[in-house]
Amino acid sequence: MTDRPNYITPAGYSALRTEYDKLFVTERPALVETIAWAAGNGDRSENGDYIYGRKRLREIDRRLGWLSKRMKAAKVVDPARQEDRSRAWFGASVTIADEDDNQRTLTLVGDDEADAGAGRIGWNAPLARALRGAVAGDLRRVILPAGEREYEVLGIAYPAG
Fold first, then answer.
1. Full-prediction pTM beyond 0.85?
2. Could you give the C-alpha distances from 77 to 38, 54, 125, in angstroms and in order?
3. Where is the Transcription elongation factor GreA/GreB N-terminal domain (predicted)?
């Protein structure tokens, strides 16, 4: 784990909690029951239900541990309560344009809830770091895997609160 805070929106934290509860309350107990049944069937070396069940149980336990650590380190930040709405901070939806005048809107969210295809980029992603603190009209340079790019900040919006 890093020393950086794990910023996350209330919706993102709720999604982590929902996944944890589903795994811990529903999937894991059902799987333990299946493993116990399969173990009672005799030879475990060629028992597919037993072998697959143990493998899946390890995967679930690993995921539960990861989710638990992330939730414990989470710092829930409600973007609707952002005081300085003129600048791009956590939870802001930022409309940018590149050198070719292609526009897109990105929302700065926690790393655990990032989904680039949906326009949500992690708070610690290179583009998000470049946009932090920006105001409309700013030009920001960022080094991406495809090379250095410059973006103009066209607008900043926050959820209503």
1. no
2. 45, 38, 18
3. 6-76
CA atoms of 58 and 107, how far apart (whole Å) = 34
Q: Note the pLDDT of residue 4.
A: 73
pLDDT attached to residue 152: 96
Distance of alpha carbon 120 from alpha carbon 105, whole angstroms: 9
Q: CATH number for the domain including 149?
A: 3.10.50.30
Q: What is the pLDDT of residues 53-93, one digit of tens each?
A: 999 999 999 999 999 999 999 999 999 898 889 999 999 99
**Taking Cα atoms as reference points, which of 82, 121, 81 lies closest to residue 104?**
121
53 and 71 fall within a common domain: yes
Residue 98 amino acid letter: D
